[in-house]
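Anyone able to model this chain together with LLP?
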Amino acid sequence: MTGALRIEGVAAEALARRFGTPLFVYSQAAILARLRRLRGGFSRPGTMVCYALKANPNRAVCGVLRQAGAGAEVVSGGELARALAAGFAPGKVVFTGVGKTGEEMALGLRQGILSFNVESGEELEALERTARRLRRRARICLRLNPDVRARTHPHVTTGRAENKFGVEESEALALAKKSRRSRWLDFQGLHCHIGSQIYELAPFQRAAAAVARALRKLEAAGLRISLIDMGGGIGVSYAGEKEIDPDELGKTMSRTFSPWPAARLLVEPGRYLSADCGTLLTAVLYRKRTSKRRFVIVDAAMNDFARPALYGAFHPILPARFRGGPCRRTDVVGPICESGDFLARQRPLQRLEQGDILALRMAGAYGFAMSSQYNSRPRAAEVLVEGRKARLVRRRETLSDIVRLEMP
Ligand code: LLP
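re: yes, here you go
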């Protein structure tokens, strides 16, 4: 096979030439296709898709989702600021996280966000104090830790009793009752997020069942339920894995939560919406061989894209120009001074030349978002493609950006 890789209507090589490499390229059509697919599955009236900004907080990416009617899920004051800058209405923003500071709470309260997903008794007290001081009522959900096992990487599982997230059912009941005694706390319902990159329906079903069980107890205690937030976590296919069918997931949730027809159902996908839209373009710098391996050294590294180094994650890599010919097992590595700095290992790739462009696929989620300046490397630029148009949505950092915040 020969030919050139395109992102929507634009040749990948042309993008690399125009904007330089390493370069994150996002396809608007791919983001919207994912949103449509997910929404199609969640036909329960009033369901809101709250995009988890942590996956890719770029303002242009957020803007595409906001314009299409999505809400936002944030986990820091910074993400809240970015959500607001991208134009999300505060009434469509929920705020999760085990360590919200008083300052972050105050920002959310002043803006009047839809809900704080509270993760501990001490956090609830702190939120109450801040709300009282500002004379703003805090809408809250309690984050339930359902002690459900989801088969995924141990670093991204969150719904087990040994994880730091949420509270167990008995504590959720106690905190909900306690919240009723404060005029500054407005209890809405429950939140639950069991982990990320999940391919099976069963853990979501078990988590939903645990939430429903707790909701029944809350109702029996006289609390009104207006929000049910089932978090994110839907896995995407990086290496041909089978993805969960959003129709099945939506149906399961609708069935489980049918006793609460007036409650608003929220889901918080990050990866599902943004992984597929993103491609990291990188140029081949050098080639070399040892007696054991064939290496291609590219200009993107683990500081630009950490998932392979951090989780051993597999991402498809393809040449922007296919020449055909035999494929050879190749390690694609970056310039950083650690052997953990690789994008792909032992990958069958066509013969590559210096200057060739490689495309690392499924790089839109937890890609740029987790990038750093490690080895004092300026962060990559980001581009959004819509049809035949490409526009820079974050400029490449420069060497002066590297030293800008330092004091003599
Ligand atoms: N909601 C909450 C409360 C979360 O903690 C997360 C992700 C999400 C929603 C979105 O999850 P998603 O739909 O994207 O799976 N850096 C890791 C992923 C960490 C996920 C953390 N929490 C990775 O690159 O695989």
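Residues 3-25+275-403 form a domain with the Lyase, Ornithine Decarboxylase; Chain A, domain 1 fold (CATH 2.40.37.10).
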